[in-house]
Design brief:
Layout (H helix, E strand, L loop, with lengths): L10 H19 L1 H4 L5 H25 L22 E2 L9 E6 L2 E6 L2 E4 L4 E4 L14 H4 L3
Antiparallel strand pairs: 1-4, 2-3, 4-5
Length: 146
């Protein structure tokens, strides 16, 4: 990790998790599912599908609480090309851009504040070092087309 504070575990988040996991359990063990889950492969496929959906939920919620979603103006992220401090490229109250990324857990939505580099004339997004282990990141030139 890069020293960023950990996401908060709130009662609302825990309740969202409980509802998701209860629904997943019902999908696997509920009476309605038993007729569809006869063979070992059908059972395995359902278990893997549910596990991926739960993993994607956890990852998306964790990413949404990351402090780097909206970095501090006092410590702006560096341009990925020249390493100079970036400048905010978004207006106050503007909706943060989001994108779908494919992870090992499946598709997740990722939101980040947009930054710009005056020297390189590119737009970029700040990501912490631990994200690079989870998400295949495109090069900075792919971000510049935003």
């Amino acid at each position: 990790m890069d020293g960023s504070p950990l996401p908060r575990m709130t009662p609302e988040l825990r309740e969202k998790w409980r509802k998701r996991s209860d629904a997943a359990f019902e999908r696997m063990f509920g009476n309605k599912s038993q007729a569809e889950l006869v063979t070992f492969t059908e059972r395995e496929d359902m278990a893997v599908l549910i596990a991926k959906e739960l993993a994607a939920f956890l990852l998306e919620e964790h990413l949404a609480q990351d402090p780097l979603v909206e970095p501090d103006q006092e410590k702006p992220p560096a341009c990925p090309k020249c390493q100079q401090p970036g400048q905010r490229a978004m207006k106050a109250k503007e909706k943060r851009p989001d994108r779908q990324v494919t992870t090992r857990a499946g598709e997740v939505r990722l939101e980040r504040e947009r930054w710009k580099c005056g020297k390189c004339r590119i737009l970029f997004f700040r990501l912490s070092s631990w994200h690079s282990n989870l998400i295949p990141l495109p090069s900075y030139s792919e971000f510049s087309a935003c």
